[in-house]
Description:
The chain is an alpha/beta fold and 224 residues long. The protein is built from 8 helices and 7 strands. It has helices spanning 3-17, 22-33, 43-56, 70-76, 92-104, 118-128, 145-154, 181-195; strands at residues 60-64, 84-89, 111-115, 133-138, 156-165, 199-208, 211-220. The longest helix has 15 residues, at 3-17.
Amino acid sequence: xDEAQWTAVDRxxxxxxxxxxxxxxxxxxxxxxxxxxxIHVTPNLGxxxxxxxxxxxxxxxxxxxxxxxxxxxxxxxxxxxxxxxITLESDPKHAEIARVNxxxxxxxxxxxLRLGRALDTLPHIAAEVHSPFDLVFIDADKPSNPEYFAWxxxxxxxGSLIVIDNVVRKGAVIDAAxxxxxxxxxxxxxxxxxxxxxxxATAIQTVGSKGYDGFAMALVTGAE
Length: 224
């Protein structure tokens, strides 16, 4: 078993279960042409996010980390009628590409993209938004994941779902002595998930075209 086989299986799954979509394909193509890093979610994970949002009956979604808007499109399309989504991106170039991709997908009226460092933007969202988010997807800089999770708790309600990507780090997450800040940030996040009484959580290892990693999910069960 190696990454070539994982990629082939991903392609098999995607070909069967994730039909071709012009807006999603264009989002990937324009992101690649602009030189954005190829760290977007895979199509099958994008569809999983879409399904989770549908199961939630989500009317409000917060995404921390937009990149080129690929996962944003998947999530926004799952919103209930009249729903809204806010996505946060710190890089102006990424935000510019994402805005074009969202407009092409017909989602300008549904998604609000806020440019700026998420830890600076989140307090403003907390002050402005009076209804909690039904789903939060965290896929940004990993050293800040503990802070993002803390904000997600403040901005959700019992019954909300929080999903965090890239929590295995090719297995490096088990190395307590690692000097990699992405590993240490992820370890702190996982410890918070384990010790936070207001959520029930789990994490899943994954392999695929993006290599070996994983994601975590937390169901909010108690209020802040």
